[in-house]
Amino acid sequence: MSKMLGAASALAMCVVAGQAMADPAGCDGEETVIRFSHVVAASGHPKGDAAQLLADRINEQMEGTACMEVYPNSTLYDDDKVMEALLLGDVQLAAPSLSKFEAYTKKLRLYDLPFLFSSLDTANAYIGSDEAKDLLSALESEGYTGLGYIMSGLKQFSANKPLETPEDAAGLKFRVQTSDVAVAMIEALNASAQKLAFKEVYGALQTGVVDGQENSWCNIYTQKFFEVQDGITETNHQVLAYGVITSQEFLEGLDEETRSQFLKIVDETLAEANNQVAEKEGECRQSIMDAGGTIRELTPEQREAWVSTMKPVWQQFEGDIGADVIENAANTSAN
Ligand code: SIN
Description:
The chain is of the alpha/beta class. It has two domains: 2-107 and 114-153 and 239-276, D-Maltodextrin-Binding Protein, domain 2; 156-237 and 282-325, 3-Layer(aba) Sandwich (D-Maltodextrin-Binding Protein, domain 2). The protein has helices spanning 7-20, 46-61, 79-88, 120-127, 130-136, 166-169, 180-188, 201-207, 217-222, 248-253, 256-275, 277-290, 300-310, 314-321, 323-334, and strands at 32-37, 66-71, 93-94, 144-154, 156-159, 173-176, 192-195, 212-215, 231-233, 239-247, 295-296. The strands form three sheets. The protein has a six-stranded mixed β-sheet, with helices on both faces. Strand 6 (173-176), helix 7 and strand 7 form a beta-alpha-beta unit. The N and C termini lie far apart (50 Å). Succinic acid is lined by residues 39-40, 47, 97, 152, 177, 198, 215, 219, 240. Keywords: Signal, Transport. It comes from Notoacmeibacter ruber. Residues 1-22 form the signal peptide. InterPro entries: DctP_fam, TRAP_DctP, TRAP_DctP_sf.
C-alpha cells in the first residue's frame, strides 16, 4: 500500500473498492495511489476529460511508482466533503469549482465577479498567469496546495421562463453554488438565490424547488438541465473554473523525484486540457441545440443591461479580494 495512506485512507479504500467494484486504473496496491474525485461527467466535459487525461498520463509515465484512479459524478464525494477527504488522505486530488473555496479563502471570490472577463480566451490567459497561481497559495494555511486550474467555460443563465432582460429574472429563485458573490449577483436581479450541491440541481429544477440556474454549456448539457428549463440565455456572465488541489501532507510525503515527475505531468496536462475548452464548450452548446434545447442570444443592448445590473456587486467584495487584484484581472480582458 502507498506509504501515505493512513488508517482513514485504508478504511476509504474498502469503501472505494466496494463502491467502484473494479479498480478503474487497476492499481495493484504497490504504487502510490492517487485518487481524483470530482462531481461532473466522466467524459464530454472539460473537467471530466482533463481528469481522465491526467490519469492516463500518470498511469503510463509513472507506472510502477504511482497510479491514478478517477471517481467522477460525485460517486465518492461532493465538493464540500472532498475538502475534508483530502486532508484525511482518503483522496489525493480534487478540483472543486473556485466558487466553493469560500470557507478557506475569500481571495478566490475574484473569479465569481460577474463580467470580469470579456471572453473565455481572456479568462484562460488570466488563469495561466503567475498572479493567478499566487492566488491559490491562499489555500496553503489550510493544509492544501493548489497545483493549477482547469478551465470549464463561461456561465449562462437558464430558467423556467424566457430570460432576455434582467427584469425577466425578477422574482425567480436561482440555484447557486456556495458563493456569496453569486448570491449578491442574483439579488441584484431582484431574484432570490438558493445554494445547492451540484448533484441536487437537476431534481430541484425538475420539481420547481428552484426556477433557474447558471452554469457552463457542458454542465447544462451533460447534466441535462436544459431538459427541465424553458431555455438558456447566452449571458457569458461569469467564469466557471476549478482549482486543482492536493494536500500538503500528500505532496510532501512523495520522494523528490516522484513529486517533480507528478507536478510536471500535472502542469503539462492542465495546459493542454485548457487549450481545448473553447472547442468542447462549443460542442456542448451545439449538442443542446441538436437535442431540442432553446438558446437565446442577447443583443448588445440587452447584454449591456445585464452588465449594468450585476457588475455593481464588485464593490461589495473589493475588500476581500483586493482592488489591485480585481484591476489586474479585469485588465487581462482589456488587453
Ligand atoms: C462543477 O462544474 O464542478 C460543478 C459546478 C456547480 O456546482 O454548478
